[in-house]
Amino acid sequence: MRTFLTMLGIIIGITSVILLMSLGQSAQDYILAQVQGIGSNLIIINPTASSSSSKFQPPSAVLGVIIKTLRDNDIAALKREPAISAVAAEVRGISRAVYGNNDTAVTYVGVNTDFITAVNITTSRGVWFDQNDIDSLNHVALIGKNVAKNLFGSADPIGKSIRIKNLPFQVIGLLSTNKGSLFAGDLSDVVIMPSSVAQKQLQGIDYYSVFIVKYNDRYDLNFVKSRITEVLMTDHGITDPNKADFQISTQDDLLSILGNITSILSIFLTSIAAISLVVGGIGIMNIMLVSVIERTKEIGLRKAVGATNSDIRLQFLCESVILTFFGGAIGIALGAGLSYLAYVVVNKFGGIVWSFALPLNAVLLAVIVSSFIGLVFGIYPAGKAAKKNPIEALHYE
Amino acid sequence: MIIVKDLVKNYVDDGTVTAALAGVTFTINDGEFVAIMGPSGSGKSTLLNVLSFLDRPTSGEYSFNGKEIEELNDQDLARVRNKQMGFVFQSFNLLSRATVYDNVEMPLLYEAGIPVSKRKALVEKAIASVGLTEKIAAEAGSLSGGQKQRVAIARALVNSPAVIFADEPTGNLDSASGAQVMQILSDLHRAGHTVILVTHETYTAEFSNRIIRLRDGRLESDAPVAKQRDGAGQFFK
Ligand SMILES: Nc1ncnc2c1ncn2[C@@H]1O[C@H](COP(=O)(O)OP(=O)(O)O)[C@@H](O)[C@H]1O
Ligand SMILES: [Mg+2]
Known about the structure:
The complex is a heterodimer. By secondary structure, chain A is of the alpha+beta class. Chain A has helices at residues 2-37, 72-79, 113-118, 131-135, 145-152, 195-203, 221-236, 251-294, 296-304, 309-350, 360-386, 390-394; strands spanning 42-47, 84-99, 102-111, 123-126, 140-143, 161-164, 167-175, 190-194, 210-215, 246-250. Chain A folds into two domains: 2-34 and 266-394, no CATH class; 68-244, no CATH class. Chain A has twelve helices and ten strands. The longest helix of chain A is centred in the last third of the chain and has 44 residues, at 251-294. Chain B is an alpha/beta fold. Chain B has a single domain (32-55, 85-236), classed as P-loop containing nucleotide triphosphate hydrolases (Rossmann fold), CATH 3.40.50.300. Chain B contains seven helices and ten strands. In chain B, strand 9 and strand 10 form a beta hairpin. In chain B, helix 3 (100-109) packs parallel to helix 5 (145-157) and helix 5 packs parallel to helix 6 (175-190). The interface between A and B is medium-sized, with 16 and 20 residues. Bound molecules: adenosine-5'-diphosphate (ADP) and magnesium ion. The site of adenosine-5'-diphosphate has 12 residues of chain B, from strand 1, strand 2 and helix 1.
């Protein structure tokens, strides 16, 4: 029991190492899946408050600055580029949708037809609107699962008319819950409509909040980026690249930002785990010192019957390593168990696709680290044991 | 063969020097059964510790089976203790939570190169020779005092040592168990082992064939047991 208590430090340390590495891996897998869901040949263009040298600037809207430069003529100019096959554009807002006596909060997203093809959104029923609907400002919409449930209950929404900001929209399709797409996000509370309607009739604007450019992957990414920069700068009448009012980001950029965040986080968490391992090691050293004193007579006896100092040292080092090794093993089991629990809980209640990952290198690291701690913190007690005088040890009471 | 000459052992404690052995000279031949006697504090244990390589003399010469203690390092001493000496202590010194088997096996673990099967045979033979075969898997702590000391003897002879050192082996035993232990030591002597026994009981000394008496760290007498009996065959003090 006392042994178990002293192993606790190691157990907690290793548990957290395993938990962190396992959850970290799962989170990374999840984020990667999300980002890769974008597609590798997509480029995102955000409007920015210009003149920043920082590579990764928050979108202008975050800064409270509204940039109105991403417009239809940009889309047309970009589409003239042979490398660019589609320019998806969206504008979004928040409102309430009403049907009869029911109403519910929705995010409405106005998109162009390229959006439908470039960003992978699937419908469970119904049809998409087309360019004609956009040109004619037709009030048609596709609605998400929650919207349908909140407004219509079990009734069929197709063909019905809902109201958003007092404008009627005919429901022409149902969106399937799409977990894989970063752009689309969770579509349960979304209403998708023609971009023209969202811009002109709901918001009274003529610009977009983001472009997603799909390029032909026969072209080099950097070439495409330089073409986009040039086209947009010309279009916006900007000559100094530092004053550009847009920011281009690719999947790689996103991955590297996420990578940075992940590594900072894991360094931080690993240091916490390291501290608990050191504390655990000191605990082990403590119990080994107690054990050396309690077993003084045994040490004397072993020396009498022929154990050399190194035999004794080795024995106590081994015991210390075995202690921490088992502490580590328990920690691995516990950490993996907790991570698995998180996996079950997240999948059941979190509504996202979360995978369970137990990286082999985490297990190896845990085994090595825990044994190493036993070794390091066992050296001093083992040395004390080895140096005991056999006669005094034999008469120790 | 054990040869000591002018053996001196001083203990220094806070500047005061205790001369536990003040120049002792004798020779013990292979196969002898020697009892070391003397009053408490006369240096018996100190002498046994030096003879059994657990301690080094302050001065004087000591040769064990042709090896001078001066010329051996601590590791050599450990090796000689392991291969050629067996130890029986007053307080048994068993690992009480280990089995009889594991206790007896201990000296063999510090001797390299004994195959497991041979080790097992040696341990079983040693345990059988002290009549404890049916206790082989018992926890040492669960045994009676006499049984514990027999386990200790089995441990002392498992490596077939030339010399068995016993420091007051019957000191913690009732007389029946003590007699049994002495009988075993006597049998070992008859089987060819040199036995060196520290005791203050004349009864146990009677099993030996030579008595070395110490007083204040010096040799008081050194004579065969037969000569210490009076005309009526009575063992005298
Ligand atoms: N480790 C020690 N330090 C100091 N003095 C000791 C030590 N061991 C024994 N002595 C002293 O040496 C003398 C001989 O002790 P010992 O050999 O144990 O005698 P015996 O075994 O005959 O009773 C005693 O005076 C004892 O106090
Ligand atoms: Mg004594």
